[in-house]
Amino acid sequence: xxxxMQEWPLLCHKIIDHAARQNPAREIVSRSVEGPIxxxxxxxxxxxxxxxxxxxxxxxCVPGDRIATLAWNTGRHLECWYGAMxxxxxxxxxxxxxxxxxxxxxxxxxxxxxxxxxxxFMPIVxxxxxxxxxxxRIVVLTDEAHxxxxxxxxxxxxxxxxxxxxGDFRWLELxxxxxxxxxxxxGTTGEPKGxxxxxxSNVLHAMMACMPDAMGISSRDVVLPVVPMFHANxxxxxxxxxxxxxxxxxxxxxxxxxxxxxxxxxxxxxxxxAVPTVWLMLLQHLEETGKTLPHLRKVVIGGSACPRVMIRxxxxxxxxxxVHAWGMTEMSPLGTLxxxxxxxxxxxxxxxxxxxxxxxxxxxxVEMKITDDAxxxxxxxxATFGRLKVRGPAVARAYYGGAGGEQFDAAGWFxxxxxxxxxxxxxxxxxxxxxxxxxxxxEWISTIDLENIAVGHPDVAxxxxxxxxxxxxxxxxxxxxxxKAGRNVEKKALLDFMAGKVARWWIPDDVAFVDEIxxxxxxxxxxxxxxxxxxxYRLPADRA
Length: 544
Ligand code: AMP
Prior knowledge:
This protein has about 550 residues and is an alpha/beta fold. It has 16 helices and 24 strands. A hairpin with a 7-residue loop joins strand 8 and strand 9. It starts with 12 loop residues before the first helix and ends with a helix. The relative contact order is 0.08.
């Protein structure tokens, strides 16, 4: 027997219809690429997104067309997303931090027909556009006065282009499983792989993200997504914030400590989300200037492991709750978030920090398990490592074009490529990427644990642990360290600092001090590059 409830397809543009009706005057504040702070409302967002849809349709875009964006987090970028989705198109965020050749490869693979780009990225666009045959039109997200001279044919200023529409476009009534958005995973090895979100998956993900033990935002919040829209959908905040009617503050291209602080302060931001590197810059700025964070109540930190010392600083020095989170582009991206369940109430401050440092527990909509290499489930005892596998309505079931099929199994589980343990309370902790874990004498050593402890040393700016060949143990850990400016911690002092914080046999065999650690386009440490760089490295014991 079927239920007798209404069919109301879960479509993304319904989110901004709802925002415009329920919270029409709520603001979206952006640091524009041209410089000034600009303001619009959810009512404006709705009209301007309809104009985008109307203009795209007039350009000949049809449902299913891929509409690329190469842009910072701004109100304009958000309009392009909703406009594209509302006419049945697929927004496709491109990561400007990739090499131009990689961006062009991705655009050809996705067969992008249309591109919205920020002024900042004109040099990249001029380089790649000639090698993307599917590209029919480029719109620069600016006004006529700022439109640059360019050899590219048919370039048009967004505001001029948009002014040709009247805004009474009727959203398409689509099947909720229609593709809505696209994002390629940065992938430290192999070709990038395309994740294709649907309207349904985006809406369900946004609802999941709003739940109190997830991001927990409301109409009373002022939300600053520092995490870029081109990095895993700004963790869904472009949909969750209008869904609940929260004010949005978009940082544009400036993510240094002083610029982020200015927005936090002047716009009275209560909630923000970003990768640890951004928070490191902000904390440094606060320490240098003695400023405080009176309005901010919560920050979500993820994308790579959040160091314990960062959680402590935010909470003890500034009264800001940290929610450590884990996710992936393939998961829309939220997977787990770390809030304290009532069972943790009896723990002391350090015990609570032990929990908060984990990546957290899954909200409804994410199932997870850990398995051994033969796919046998491993226990949730907080110690046994396994491959982390997930499934849910906002988790990919295939990559665009069919690449990477081996990561999906017949029962619908997606192998994340991460290694983790899960405790009896449901809290998951990532211990490594499967390909980064150090295998010493048949046992696994977590590189993330070693790095977290090392960056707790006051002289260490950044640390990366890699396995290097060892005659007896196969692999032993080498710690690669960038010192803070003007500091000169030495190997012995650092290893003494780490002693007692992990098992003795986990302590690195050696420390290499470097000026810089290489990062991927989404800010993760490029272990493959480091391993290559230290391929011929001889550990002290092997040198003897
Ligand atoms: P991306 O798709 O670029 O967001 O990358 C996803 C990957 O980032 C995950 O598979 C993890 O390896 C890593 N990652 C994300 N969040 C965390 C976290 N909180 N701690 C450790 N690794 C993380």
